[in-house]
Design goal:
Blueprint: H1 6-22, E1 37-40, E2 44-45, H2 52-67, E3 71-72, E4 80-96, E5 104-119, E6 125-139, H3 144-168
Parallel strand pairs: 1-3, 1-4, 2-4
Antiparallel strand pairs: 4-5, 5-6
């Protein structure tokens, strides 16, 4: 009786081919199928914190560039458009000097933004008015106002990372 080697070959190859089957649905590039670019409209600032919108916009552009999932483009030609309004900013003391209980040495700077992400071609909103909160903790041993201005880049960076994560992980 002469048996065909094909069944044996299939049994041997099956364990090798099973992991490849999982790759059949893998999608290269963005998890946002059909979207390759994003335009970031300069943020609006309703917080009263001077220059915060500039820091937040610049950090967001830089974060999208670092991430690389979406190409940063002009809002008029991008697949997606991100708009954000900074709607809240708080500055709270966390730790005080040992010998002077009225003098704060460590602070938390928190900002809240309302973001909207729109498919530019269809007008469909992926996020509409989604609130995103970011914070940054820092120490100040001297001029609190100067430290607060310096902390803007830290809190803006945290906001940018959160915005990018929400956009590129949108499913």
């Amino acid at each position: 009786m002469n048996r065909s080697p094909i069944p044996r070959l299939c049994v041997l190859l099956l364990p090798l081919l099973m992991p490849v089957g999982g790759c059949a649905t893998y999608y290269l590039g963005s998890t946002l199928r059909g979207y390759a670019s994003i335009g970031v409209v300069p943020f609006l600032n309703q917080t009263g914190e001077p220059q915060l919108e500039f820091a937040a916009t610049q950090e967001t552009l830089a974060a999208f560039q670092r991430d690389g999932t979406l190409t940063v483009a002009d809002a008029a030609s991008a697949d997606l458009v991100l708009e954000a309004v900074l709607v809240g900013a708080t500055f709270e003391p966390l730790a005080y000097a040992r010998n002077r209980s009225a003098t704060a040495r460590e602070f938390r700077y928190t900002i809240t933004a309302r973001m909207t992400v729109t498919d530019r071609k269809t007008g469909r909103k992926l996020y509409d008015g989604r609130l995103v909160r970011a914070d940054y903790t820092f120490r100040s041993d001297g001029d609190t106002q100067q430290a607060r201005l310096s902390a803007q880049s830290g809190v803006a960076r945290d906001l940018a990372q959160r915005l990018v994560r929400l956009v590129v992980e949108y499913w």
